[in-house]
Predict the 3D structure of the following.
Amino acid sequence: MAVGTHGESFMETDPPASHPARRGARGHDAPGGLDGLAQVANKIRDAVESVIEGKPSVVRLALTVLLAEGHLLIEDVPGVGKTMLAKALARSVDCSVRRVQFTPDLLPSDITGVSAYNQELREFEFKPGPIFANIVVGDEINRASPKTQSALLECMEERQVTVDGTTYTLEPPFMVISTQNPVEMEGTYPLPEAQRDRFTARISMGYPDPAAELEMLDNHGETSPLDRLTPVAHAEDVRDLIEVVRRQHVAPAVRQYAIDLVSATRRHPELRLGASPRATLHLVRAARAYAALDDRDYVVPDDVQELAVPVLAHRLLPTAEAQVERRRPEQVVADLVKRLPVPSPGK
């Protein structure tokens, strides 16, 4: 099914008025509606692609997760540009960015912050950790202990931090971009199911093709293109774009299709753990952002199909028999996408 083939059948009969343009907090012109979203999103995409050569689909998915108010897990072998992608996306937006290098001796307070006694004031004061930023880059997250990994659970789901009984709200936009090596690599701790479920999508960079690798040698010769990258959008812009994405229309048939797809993972004989209701929510949110990047104010089944593997696969646990047969969750989700009936136009 080609993207948009029956898109008009899934449109809203009377679509809402586009988001009015307004001036942001920094005095710049804030984007309005889908036109403004496409303009700003294209700038961010071009900026990231100036650093990451030959991976347009990966860059688009990362941008989709940002606009869907989600978190991104980048998993692959060392040296393929995982951290470079995270840094490029973070530097493309003029907002607060903090990087955390996860190590076995990292403590939860090193991420969330700690209350320290102030001798002058004679009272404890809270010193915020690196999680208090708009974009947090967690490098090699699976090198930290499970105790430290769990420090991100509340932050990622509830967008708040609780330290010594006091809760601090994280300022939007808030996104965690984590990289990790495959779990079979030496010195790593596999992320628990609850942690993986909080990531909206997982992507793999993969090796570049020869032409892209040759271009990388030219561009990364004397200096890194990351050093030349300047912000092309503001945090206020991203907040406005997120509001536009929230208003994307999702027809009842498309919502039911997403539910059917997620529900099928819970009954599949090759899976001992299916996707959660949170996965359904993340899938629909990501589909809204994916449609907006296509300059559409409505979601079609194709958007759900394109995002099914990156949004669902990392949440699934295969059975022992499936592992013996080397059946990966990605293959199971792809099979379900092919097998499940697509909603008929007009429903």
In short: Residues 1-6, 13-30 have pLDDT under 50 and may be disordered. The longest strand covers residues 113-118. The radius of gyration is 21 Å.
